[in-house]
Design a protein that fits this description.
By secondary structure, the chain is of the alpha/beta class. Helix 6 runs parallel beside helix 7 and helix 6 packs antiparallel against helix 9. Among the domains are: 285 residues, P-loop containing nucleotide triphosphate hydrolases (Rossmann fold); 106 residues, Helix Hairpins (Orthogonal Bundle).
Amino acid sequence: MIRRLTLQGWRAFDDLTLDLTDGLTFVVAENGVGKTSLVQAAAWGVYGSLSKVDARAARRIGADATRVEVAIELPDGQVLSIEREVRDRAEPMLARLDGRTLDDEGVGRVMAEAFGASREFLSMTTLLPSDAVADDAAGAFHLQAHLRRVFGVDDLQRAAEELQRLHADAEAEARKVRQATRRAAADRSRLRAQLAEAEAEEASAQTTRTQARTVLEFAESQLLQARAREAARAKAEAARQEFADLLATARRALGRGTRLGRVNRPAELATHLDAAEVAATDTLDEHRREAATVAGRLAAVRAAASSLHSAGAECPVCRRGLSADDVTRAEGVHERELADLLAHERRLAALVESASARLAEIRGLGRRVARLPEIPPAGGDPGDVDAAAFAVQAARADAERLDEQAAIARARRTTLAAQVADEERLARESHEASLAHGRAATTGVAAEVMRATADAILTERIDPLAAEVSHRWKRVFGERGSLRLRPDGHLVLVRGVHEIPFSQFSSGEKVVALLATRLLVLGASTRASFLWLDEPLEHLDPRNRRITASLMGAAGEHVRQILVTTYEEALARRLASAASAQLRYVRTPES
């Protein structure tokens, strides 16, 4: 039974803890307060996704967390604690039992072992929302499948199916033996001769195939060598072409005054370029030194001109007085010398730039030459890749043809060997025909016995339940028909010669019929100790309400806890007084 239910951030409940006891309890709350969400929270907490409850939709607006914790007392007195939460995209679960932590599968195993029913069956029978109280759309909560598991009928059925399979195998074996015994010794001799011929043919085909594979491997090696030679020639030709291009570029770069002579190798060209680089470096250095000399002279002329003006009417060297004509003549000399030096400086700058460009070009050519591979000498056997490829194709086609012939010979030999083995086994198996027939007969009879036993158990176990359901119905409704629990688990009402389906029951009939059936099934075929019903009394007339309350009050020792939600406080008080039940009031902070 459920000892405690704790809710946090669940629909209308910000924080609620319910401590529950044995017996019949009426939970009273106004409409909109959360009676249905209370049962839904308990169902989700116990059964998770099997409850069909959308826990995300139940999250209270503005709540920091949404959590449901259920404490379930098992029949042996241990308490199973299950805590579930709603997070961003997950619904984590934490369960504990006797100091152990359980995962979801572990919880299912514990509940199935403790209550004697699968968790799927319990989820449809113990915590029922208002729309399921009077609904048997789930096939009377999988009653037949549950009872078959409880009473071991499934095991008997599987055993009967296995025996039927063995029977079919034995029949097939018997037919095989009967056919094998009809073959004659002449057939075996003929097959042995054919087998010897097939073995010789296979050996010959295998030898020829091996030779063809050797020829193919040689042709492929020749093709690889031809391709390697062709690639080497192409590489050498590319190197020669690049060397020729570099040589032509070097001739143009070095100019007519440089004689390269006959250059055949990159090393020879590199030697010429090294010499040209040295000469170009010397020329560049010479131009730079001359440019530095001119720059010095320019500085001296500018300094002399500046001193002439700053000295007044005296010579800056001898300090003698200068006339105006002397100053004018001196200024003219300085200007002409300065103009000549500036022109000379521009010529030298152009020469430095040209020499620098020439040196950079020579060095670039040198680096390119250094990267060239050694050029092999021309000539050699060019090889014929096309001819080698053609030879490989022909050898491969021949090898594949011989592979196919060898495979055909091997398959024929294998088939004949199997046939010979079968024929030789027939002589030894003739006495086994009677044994095979005996096994076939035995397994067939055993399968029939297993099926009959399974049917008998179902009849013995389900029929008394159906009779008790009908008896309880008679006590409540008298002669208003006979309620029957069909073998498929559905309820029907028989009135005279007419059979009324459950969908056409009145509201009161549905509630009473399903409540009586659930209580009976829970008590007779499970050890489940609790049943929660959401508003089963609403829309019932006073007589059906009293009948329903009396059924719940007399549930028996197994179903120790029945919890019923309702919004009719006066009704709950009357029924609680009549059935010796408890009243619990549930309110939210807003109510």
